[in-house]
């Protein structure tokens, strides 16, 4: 008889801030699947796993963790060679699981992320059961987080959130993308700004941390200012703990891309998007949360800080860019989108011959729309 593989499920996504987290998949796919910029689950339907099957996965993780801990020496270091030898007898799928647990433990074994795109679509009581079991099997876990769609989150009561918090849910990530009803409708997000506010307030009232995502430029040129100002309004109302910037990229094959091809949607330039971020910072008065720029698709990843205390610093960083002559702004966009620099400071480190080549590319494209399309095309490789 063939031996059963010792594996657990691993889903496709997690926020960058959960790079070192253990991934526990409690659902698969997304309940909505209609956002016009998203292709993530286009070919799969939503699945909620039974509590028993999730507990089996947790048990498997605990079993692997026990094996992996044997390779930690008394001084805290790890015997990678012995670990690699242990993996040799495993199947490819088992190696993936074991490797994830090992990496997690090496990185402290502190945080867990419950996957997938809209995990809180699972009834709260089921999530509570999962959290309780997870915390029992891994008592040293410090933080558990998950993703939730704003519309789903708006239907969960403060009481339910309190139960989730008591069972060990510490933070919820939600892709709000925008606080403008017009933009939300344009991108078919299936949620309103009021629902976002309800969701955000309920989560915070229960003491759970909230991390929301703002997609600068997703409303296109026509709704650029509206996107920034209305998102700032939602941020002011909720005061989320984190506002994470995800600059919009209109990817080939998406609904928004088709609308752009038909001329019904106008791409925002890199400058439009940065201006949106500037406005969001400027108009988020009273918000004590942290603006996080933890993705390479953001033009100025160095703009980061508390929305109250670091407001002026962040605004002046952006203003430094806007004070550059237009050709230098384009040069920076090109360098950034080519992955050559990570901040404005790095521009001085580019070799002269490379700079010359880039200047030639910039001078060849004189039409603004053509330039914006080129930049968008370059950004597609990052998502
Ligand atoms: S809710 Fe999230 S995962 Fe679902 S379609 Fe929209 S962006 Fe994609």
TrEMBL record:
Gene3D superfamilies in UniProt: Aldolase class I
A UniProt-annotated Pfam family: Radical_SAM
CDD domains: Radical_SAM (cd01335)
Transcription found in the keyword field: no
Molecular function as annotated in GO: catalytic activity; iron-sulfur cluster binding; metal ion binding
Assigned keywords, A-Z: Iron, Iron-sulfur, Metal-binding, S-adenosyl-L-methionine
Signal peptide start-end: none
Cofactor: [4Fe-4S] cluster
The protein, known as: Radical SAM protein
Biological source species: Sinanaerobacter chloroacetimidivorans
Lineage of the organism: Bacteria, Bacillati, Bacillota, Clostridia, Peptostreptococcales
């Amino acid at each position: 008889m063939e031996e059963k593989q010792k594996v657990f499920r691993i889903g496709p996504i997690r926020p960058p801030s959960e790079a070192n987290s253990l991934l526990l998949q409690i659902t698969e796919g997304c309940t909505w699947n209609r956002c016009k910029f998203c292709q993530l689950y286009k070919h799969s339907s939503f699945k909620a796993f039974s509590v028993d099957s999730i507990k089996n996965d947790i048990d498997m993780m605990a079993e692997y963790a026990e094996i992996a801990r044997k390779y930690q020496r008394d001084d805290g270091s790890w015997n990678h060679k012995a670990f690699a030898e242990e993996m040799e007898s495993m199947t490819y799928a088992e190696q993936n699981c074991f490797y994830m647990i090992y990496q997690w433990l090496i990185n402290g074994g502190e945080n867990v992320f419950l996957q997938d795109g809209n995990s809180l679509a699972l009834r709260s009581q089921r999530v509570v059961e999962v959290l309780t079991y997870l915390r029992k099997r891994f008592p040293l876990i410090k933080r558990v987080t998950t993703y939730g769609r704003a519309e789903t989150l708006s239907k969960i009561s403060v009481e339910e959130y309190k139960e989730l918090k008591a069972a060990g849910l510490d933070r919820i990530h939600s892709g709000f993308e925008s606080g403008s009803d017009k933009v939300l409708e344009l991108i078919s997000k299936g949620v309103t700004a009021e629902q976002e506010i309800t969701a955000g307030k309920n989560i915070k009232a229960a003491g759970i941390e909230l991390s929301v995502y703002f997609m600068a430029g997703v409303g296109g040129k026509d709704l650029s200012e509206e996107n920034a100002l209305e998102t700032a309004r939602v941020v002011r109302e909720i005061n989320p703990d984190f506002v994470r910037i995800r600059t919009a990229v209109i990817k080939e094959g998406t609904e928004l891309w088709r609308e752009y091809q038909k001329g019904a949607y106008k791409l925002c330039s890199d400058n439009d998007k940065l201006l949106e971020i500037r406005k969001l910072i400027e108009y988020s008065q009273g918000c004590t949360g942290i603006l996080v720029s933890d993705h390479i698709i953001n033009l100025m990843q160095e703009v980061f800080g508390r929305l109250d205390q670091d407001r002026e610093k962040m605004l002046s960083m952006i203003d430094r860019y806007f004070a550059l002559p237009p050709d230098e702004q384009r040069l920076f966009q090109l360098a950034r989108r080519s992955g050559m620099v990570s901040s404005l400071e790095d521009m001085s480190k580019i070799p002269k011959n490379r700079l010359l080549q880039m200047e030639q590319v910039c001078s060849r494209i004189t039409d603004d729309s053509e330039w914006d399309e080129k930049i968008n095309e370059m950004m597609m490789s990052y998502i």
